[in-house]
Amino acid sequence: MSPLRIYRIDAFTTVRGEGNPAGVVTDARGLSAAQMQAIAAELGHSETAFVLPPRGDDHDVHVRFFSPTTEVPVCGHATVGAHFALALEGGARGMRRQLTGAGVQQVETREDADGIVVRIRQNAPTFDAPLGDELVRELADALGLAFDELDPRGPVQFVSTGHGKLMVPIRSRERLLALRPDMTRLAALGERSGGRGYFVFTLDAQAGDDALTHGRMFAPGIGIEEDPVTGNANGPMGAWLVKHGLLAARDAEARFRARQRNGAGRGGFVDVAVTVEDGEPTAVAIEGRAVLGERVER
């Protein structure tokens, strides 16, 4: 077996040491699932992407994603990292069809004056029924929020474009930044709430802000207490905003920038585009930039 080429890529940022770090193994052929899991655990990033040859004619590349504790179907920032790393190795720009545990996605890699951009066409959004008030109150308490601090303009609801999150809208950006959730209680709520990832966000933007939304994402149930920037949270959030009349479309598309930052101060941004037909969100795409952290062979 050839030496493994292992990268750390800071995704959803243009600044090294910011964004969300992902591990990437650009040629993982020959590795077993157990070996991939062991590498992901050793690297310790929220997700590591393993690039594999295609398994059929309906896709160009097969990518598997592992958190430190389990395989996950798809991951936005690790997808950005994987295609950024392939571009660094001289991989073709343009469109690739990527097979993941969530199906086949279209991923476009292009270059502009500011560097490499990766655009991911996520799956069509799906919406679960909103959570009932009793469970919402329990969730709010685990997050350290009062019930009336939630934003009443939309429900607490699980939304997915491949690997979904529970959308938790709140009124105040100040409260968002101050959150100190009870991670044990959040992990225990995962089965009852319908999702193991909780995306808490607000439309409480400041004057001159380049972003429509600010968010934080907690997923202790899969070994990630808090994620710095999450493509599979901000994409579904865009669909949620359109669904509940909080984001208007122009020429059948709604576009915005979403920012996310964890409690330690690390974060970045995601550019989101939602296709809208007859007032309903029908497709979601996200765009991200990235920076090389390090590259090793072993």
TrEMBL record:
Entry's Gene Ontology molecular function annotations: isomerase activity
Pfam families to which the protein is assigned, alphabetical: PhzC-PhzF
Highest taxon in the source lineage: Bacteria
Keyword Membrane: no
TM region positions: none
InterPro entries: Phenazine_PhzF-like
Coiled-coil residues: none
Protein keywords: Isomerase
Cell cycle keyword on record: no
Family statement drawn from the similarity comment of this UniProt entry: Belongs to the PhzF family.
Name of this protein: PhzF family phenazine biosynthesis isomerase
Lineage, uppermost ranks: Bacteria, Pseudomonadati, Pseudomonadota, Gammaproteobacteria, Lysobacterales
